[in-house]
Amino acid sequence: MLKEGTKEIRQVYVDTLINLAAKDKNIVVMEADLAASIGTVKFKEKYPDQFVNCGIMEAQMVGAAAGLSLAGKRPFLHTFATFATRRPYDQIFISLGYARLGATILGSDPGVCAEHNGGTHMPFEDIALMRTIPNCTVAEPSDEYMMKALIEMSYEKGGLWYIRAQRKKAMQIYTENEKFELGKAKVVKDGKDVCIIASGICVSDALQAASLLEKKGIDAAVIDMFMIDPLDKDIILKYAKSCGQILTVENHFIVNGLGSAAAEVIAESGTGVKFKRLGVDKRYGQTGSLNFLKKEYGIDAESIAAAAEGLAK
Amino acid sequence: MDNVEVKKLEKFALEIRLNTVKSLNHLGSGHYGGSLSIVECLAVLYGKVMKIDPKNPDWEGRDYFILSKGHAGPGLYPALALLGYFELDKLMTLNKDGTTLPNHLDRMLTPGVDMSSGSLGQGISVATGVAKALKMNGSDQYVYCIVGDGEMNEGQCWEAVQFATAQDLDNLILFIDDNKKQLDGTVEEIGGKRDFAAIFATFGFDSAAVAGNDVSAIYNAITDAKKVKGKPHVIVLDTIKGQGFPYLEQKASSHHLRPNEEEKVILNNFIAKLEKELEGLNNA
Asked: Which residue among A63, A70, A73 sits closest to B122, beta carbon to beta carbon?
């Protein structure tokens, strides 16, 4: 049985940045008037000279981040995932991507995690946008330990990163000492009948779905594809061969997200498998609680189990 | 600045202008108008003001220059070539297949180009970021940035203006190339009449306006700006699109030119005139 993690994801973000800043004065934390929402106020109190609140100016935040990077700093930018990607997309593409400058962009509360902020704040397209930028690493942690690891990895590897994560506590998938590698997915449950590939909040629901399937005699594998770019193609093909059925689940549009990325790999490999994508299809976001929205968009444990069962038949 | 130095910068401007027109002519088309209007400003920055090392373009202690109006790259390249960042004959590869001198700037391709630009409104934000980083380091380096008057249509520019004042970036010297025209017509008819010097002063900038074809005036404005502490600076350059090339100065549409046969003759005559002037200066 899964349990909730111990720390909020936002707290992990801030604590990790404080640890990094203790070692590197070139760390710069940037906000667009949402410091109180993510908790970087704590960072500001500790390192006021390494904190820049740009105000409600996302394009400027990205442009200034590019300038900071150009002059040797390592910027970490945050705003809600809509405003971190869709709004300043050309600035990210040109000033950071095309100009080969480095920054870690955290888009918080992606997809249904935006909950009661509703449709204007509910990006189902952020991965789609970011994975088309040629030199952008795109990742989505499923729990607090992975969040810490990804923030640190983005710092160590450098370059342009987009990380989407909820602000609240996540279900705990891993233990504190788990190691994560760039472009290497995690098999969180092995299985032989059907393979469920998920990321972010969908990983815990996929694990719950696997428990439901087990009662029906279906042995489902669950893969945490926490990095959409670079994608772990090998593991997709390995499970395509061993299970013969692949189901992808994402808190995102089924267009150009995790499901599309997996489909591209499978289609080009010539491996014939039964394949289905679960996610949001040609709909906008809306207000609601997390559980209501997951059910509404068909990415809750029951919907996942039903889709997997359909494939495994 | 004494008279000898003024003459030196005027000669540098002439060489930049001559090579800009020659390289665009060789290419056969391009952004003549906006490249020529910034020539004198470039001559002052690269000929006298900026702390730079052409032998070490990435020197960490350098002053930064960001050409936010990235389509004026053909004006910047001659200045860089004349200083030795790369060979002068490279200018004849301007925007040709496989070139290191694209029409719009690419910092990964061209030695001496600090920032890629071309998507308007972005360079000014990047300039504020560099200025902020230098401030964080306690450095006395400056950041210079040229923005087009038409480019000021972009909302992002006004975000950058707010940021620059909120962060007290007095190491940022911004130039507005007030050449009064953009691609589709005059800046006034498209974006409305704007007194940039007054607007920037209202925003909290140290603000000045000078004749953009006068190297002394530009230099003096920069010197004066540096005396004002605690505020970012703007110097509005009163320029003419196609500056220094009488035919283009008069032409209504001067943003981009693909010369017809008649214009090719005019351009060749203009090049011959500038070459003669330069020869005269060299022999003086």
From this structure: A63
Where residue B54 falls (left for φ over 0; alpha for ψ -120 to 50; beta otherwise) is alpha
ipTM metric: 0.96
Chain A residues with beta carbon closer than 8 angstroms to that of B108 = 99-100
Token digits for A86?
């869709």
Q: Running DSSP on this structure, what letter comes out for residue A167?
A: S
Question: Could you give all domains of chain B from N- to C-terminal order, each with its CATH number?
Answer: 3-283 (3.40.50.970)
Q: Does residue B64 sit at the A interface (CB-CB below 8 Å)?
A: yes
b/e B151-163 (16+ beta carbons within 10 angstroms → b): bbbbebbbbbbbb
Q: How many CB atoms lie within 10 A of CB A190?
A: 13
Q: How many structural domains are present in chain A?
A: 2
Catalytic, A58? Answer yes
Of the candidates A31, A58, A125, A140, the residue annotated as catalytic is A58
Question: Does A180 map to a domain?
Answer: no
Judge if A120 and A205 occupy the same domain: no
Q: Is the pLDDT of residue A313 over 90?
A: no
pTM of the model: 0.97
Determine the Cα–Cα distance for residues A18 and A39; give it in Å rounded to an integer.
12
Mind listing the pLDDT tens digit for each residue in B84-93? 999 999 999 9
Helix (H, G, I), strand (E, B) or coil at B168: coil
- Out of A171, A202, A234, pick the residue that ends a domain: A171
Is residue A278 within 8 Å of residue A205, measured between CB atoms?
Answer: no
**Local structure of A264: helix, strand or coil:** helix
Q: Within a domain: residue A176?
A: no
- Which is it for strands A194-198 and A227-229: parallel, antiparallel or unpaired? unpaired
Residues constituting chain B:
284
Q: Taking CB atoms and an 8 Å limit, are B119 and A90 in contact across chains?
A: yes
pLDDT by residue (tens digit) across B20-64?
999 999 999 999 999 999 999 999 999 999 999 999 999 999 999
The verdict on A144 and A291 lying in the same domain is: no
Question: Which is nearest to A180 in space by CA: A205, A145, A204, A156?
Answer: A145
Domain that holds residue A275: 186-312
